[in-house]
């Protein structure tokens, strides 16, 4: 249902399947969307160009890219000289990027305060995910509390809300909802090691989850593979 008055929202947009769906959902709910992508030194940098295209095609009012080089910290297969795994392992995988969602939400919060937006959207998921601790509902709830304590707007009594519309959905459910909202998933890049043309490897953890999602949804996978 569309909102009675237009409210602004900052939507974290990686260029992947999940965040594109979140943008479509936020737009469908009547928000004026301002997308934010983070260039953190990730090896799958073609997703940044995908985020720009998606922001435009899905009707965002503005799009911004913020650069923070997490390669200086490393510790992840996405930001360090560590091979991206092609087999499922136990525990938190090496594709986990330390403090990534904390950093991204902090940047989105700052952008929201400047934009006079009180809504933040992020595509975290606690069902079909890779075991990342910063995708859990407890983390989102804790960060939402932080928003009120760490901002001028919060100190003045305004409340920020973090929207996580995918958090309890399976990948197939996400794909079905996004398809119904007009998301062109051929424009999205989910692969952890996509090449410069945006072609997916087909074997990393993210590619496997994406492939299975399209299969379970009964929708043809439009991903371009190497």
UniProtKB/TrEMBL annotation:
Q: Which GO terms describe its molecular function?
A: ATP binding; ligase activity, forming carbon-nitrogen bonds; zinc ion binding
InterPro entries from the entry?
A: QueC (IPR018317), Rossmann-like_a/b/a_fold (IPR014729)
Which residues does the record give as Zn(2+) binding sites?
191, 201, 204, 207
Its pathway, per UniProt, is: Purine metabolism; 7-cyano-7-deazaguanine biosynthesis
Q: Which reaction does it catalyse?
A: 7-carboxy-7-carbaguanine + NH4(+) + 2 ATP = 7-cyano-7-carbaguanine + 2 AMP + 2 diphosphate + 2 H(+)
Q: What are the alphabetically sorted keywords of the record?
A: ATP-binding, Ligase, Metal-binding, Nucleotide-binding, Queuosine biosynthesis, Zinc
- Please share the entry's free-text remark on the cofactor: Binds 1 zinc ion per subunit.
Q: What is its EC number?
A: 6.3.4.20
> What is any one GO biological process for this UniProt entry?
tRNA queuosine(34) biosynthetic process
Q: Does the keyword Protein transport apply?
A: no
Q: Which cofactor does it need?
A: Zn(2+)
Task: Using the UniProt record, name the top-level EC class of this enzyme in a single word.
Answer: ligase
Query: From what superkingdom does this record's organism come?
Result: Bacteria
Gene3D superfamilies noted in UniProt: HUPs
Where ATP binds, per the record, is at 13-23
Family designation:
Belongs to the QueC family.
**What does the UniProt record say this protein does?**
Catalyzes the ATP-dependent conversion of 7-carboxy-7-deazaguanine (CDG) to 7-cyano-7-deazaguanine (preQ(0)).
Q: What is this protein called?
A: 7-cyano-7-deazaguanine synthase
Q: In which organism is this protein found?
A: Wenzhouxiangella marina
Q: Cite the source lineage.
A: Bacteria, Pseudomonadati, Pseudomonadota, Gammaproteobacteria, Chromatiales
Q: Which gene encodes it?
A: queC
């Amino acid at each position: 249902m569309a909102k009675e008055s237009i409210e602004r929202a900052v939507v974290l947009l990686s260029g992947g399947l999940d965040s594109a769906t979140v943008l479509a959902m936020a737009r469908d709910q009547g928000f004026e969307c301002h997308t934010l992508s983070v260039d953190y030194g990730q090896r799958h940098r073609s997703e940044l160009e995908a985020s720009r295209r998606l922001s435009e095609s899905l009707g965002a009012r503005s799009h911004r890219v913020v650069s923070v080089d997490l390669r200086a910290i490393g510790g992840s297969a996405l930001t360090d000289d560590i091979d991206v795994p092609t087999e499922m392992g136990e525990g938190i995988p090496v594709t986990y990027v330390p403090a990534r969602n904390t950093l991204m939400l902090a940047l989105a919060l700052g952008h929201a305060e400047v934009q006079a937006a009180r809504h933040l959207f992020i595509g975290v998921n606690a069902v079909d995910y890779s075991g990342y601790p910063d995708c859990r509902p407890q983390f989102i709830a804790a960060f939402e509390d932080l928003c009120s304590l760490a901002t001028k707007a919060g100190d003045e009594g305004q409340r920020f809300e973090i929207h996580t519309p995918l958090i309890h959905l399976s990948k197939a459910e996400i794909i079905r909802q996004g398809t119904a909202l007009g998301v062109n998933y051929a424009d999205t890049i989910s692969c952890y090691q996509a090449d410069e043309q945006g072609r997916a490897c087909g074997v990393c953890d993210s590619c496997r989850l994406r492939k299975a999602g399209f299969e379970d949804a009964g929708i043809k996978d439009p991903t371009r593979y190497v």
